[in-house]
Design a protein that fits this description.
303 residues; mainly beta; five-stranded mixed β-barrel; three-stranded antiparallel beta sheet; 5 helices; 13 strands; globular; binds calcium ion
Length: 303
Amino acid sequence: MASGRSIGSWLLLVVLGCGGRENTVENVDAQQESPPRADAAPEFACEESFGDTYVLNKLQFMDPGTGLDINDDAVPDNALGHLGQFVNKGLNDSIRKGTSLILLDLIQSGNELFIDYYLGRDWDADSTNNLLGQGEFSVTPEQFDVDCVPRGRFHSVTRKGREFTARNDKWTWVYPGFGTVEFRQVLVHFVFNDDASGFDGNLAGIWTLCGASNTQFSQMNIDNMSFLDAMVNNYSLQPDIDVDGDGIEEVVGDGVRVAKCLDGDGVVLEGRECPCLPQIADGFSVSFSGTGVRAKIRGVKPD
Ligand SMILES: [Ca+2]
Ligand SMILES: [Ca+2]
Ligand SMILES: [Ca+2]
């Protein structure tokens, strides 16, 4: 037994569900048209291996007031929970249609257990067989770093029977053609069923103010509107987790965009770029729940 998978970048998924952006890797065609050069870098030189793989067949924002406890104060953390009413349906539609395939791979290396997160591509372009327990997928080369380590790797995995947990202080997901979604203080928890054919899981993390300000929000027809612009001006959301221990930071909008930040100690930092200043570290908590079923990663190939 020992397989697991649940979770990963649910936020990312949400972002994808909202933004509807295409995942494209530029220049692939151009590279293929060029004659190979002797000194050209190999396209993908890793000898990757995969363990027990699962694909998420359901994923949703947990309800407000419910969630995992990221900061150990015995209170569930899920500041973005009420966004679920807007995005949960689209999120699950995209899973069914095969446009959001979240893979989790539980793999043992030496004495250490890892949970690797990938965004999958449907191997046979038939979405009807993806979520039945035998779905086959590929992953892209961009999901490995220069040392061939999966970028979506969770360390510090602990296992107690059928229950797995993992934490990461910082976890960054780079999504080709879209951008980076960074989580802090990420916590994952999932429980496998008896025959390890599936699991119930949760993921919680903090989406930093800087990360939210660097992510485009394309649902509104305003050029360059970021998620943070929308959260502050349209949804009156403020960060809830004090990452840097100086008190909760606050973001002030001008009605459309971010105008200034108030550091945890009250210092005012003017300008739309304030969320990415080093003094501004806090973020929004979010907790997701999901379920997964068995799957297989057939290999690595570019889009
Ligand atoms: Ca808490
Ligand atoms: Ca398929
Ligand atoms: Ca703070």
